[in-house]
Design brief:
Helix content: 25-40%
Radius of gyration: 16 Å
Number of helices: 4
Oligomer: single chain
Largest sheet: 6 strands, mixed
Number of domains: 1
Strand order of the largest sheet: 2-3-1-4-6-5
Distance between the termini: 45 Å
Strand content: 15-25%
Amino acid sequence: MCYFLYGAISKNDYNKKFISTSLKYNIPVDDSFEYNSLISSKNSNNDNYIFFRLTNDYCDCNSPIGNADEINNKYLNTYNKRKDYLNYVNNIIDNFFNWLKDLKDLSSLNYIYFIKHWENGKFENECEKYIIHIDDINRDFFINLEDEIAYKIQLYKRYY
């Protein structure tokens, strides 16, 4: 039983620019698959999406993404270790955040899904969906990512 971080993008947006931008941040989008029941919909099918893991790790149990409790408690009483650990966490989160900002700059993408999934050997159910704009995302968003929610991150430019 492990955590896995998944991403999903429209097949129309899965192109050379997306792939090269993603690989620049070590997001393994070139190893994709075409079905995942986590974001299927009763009104549409998965034929419109490309799915991929967000890391190259075997599993994402040790990732700081969605791991607020461990981050807040780890090395709490040891300043130097805590500082080093927080730098490690911030580097990982900043990599994802900078990747999303670069994807926004491509201007051809409207959204991307992020999912933190607990694989327990049981049948996967469709996740609850939550929509958020990239301008509303910060480090806390990644640290507090909840399990089994398909976060639809809007990448288009806002006009106020």
